[in-house]
Design brief:
Layout: H1 3-36, H2 40-60, H3 72-93
Helix pairs in contact: 1-2, 2-3
């Protein structure tokens, strides 16, 4: 890979890292607002959707983003597992505080 392609790739990787961090901070703010305003079911569904977002970002984009741990396949499988688990247990969070 020549120097120009490397610099373009590193600029792209830096942009991707900043973008995912900004999206994560915004997601966390929305998540906390949903929790504080007593919407735990929506917050858990948001968590599941965001986990799927991370799985897609890890599968599509090259390199090793800041939220990655090991190999690409393992990271995608882990994020998908977290999303499915959150979605599976989401109905129970709808009953929190009822009664």
């Amino acid at each position: 890979m020549n120097e120009q392609k490397r610099s373009r790739f590193s600029a792209y990787a830096a942009w991707l890292e900043r973008a995912t961090r900004i999206v994560t901070v915004l997601w966390l703010c929305v998540f906390l607002v949903l929790i504080v305003t007593n919407h735990p079911h929506r917050a858990v569904l948001l968590l599941a959707g965001f986990s799927l977002f991370y799985a897609c970002v890890r599968a599509i984009f090259p390199g090793r983003p800041w939220f990655a741990s090991r190999g690409r396949f393992f990271d995608c499988a882990l994020w998908i597992l977290v999303a499915v688990a959150c979605w599976w247990f989401a109905p129970w969070t709808a009953t929190v505080g009822v009664g």
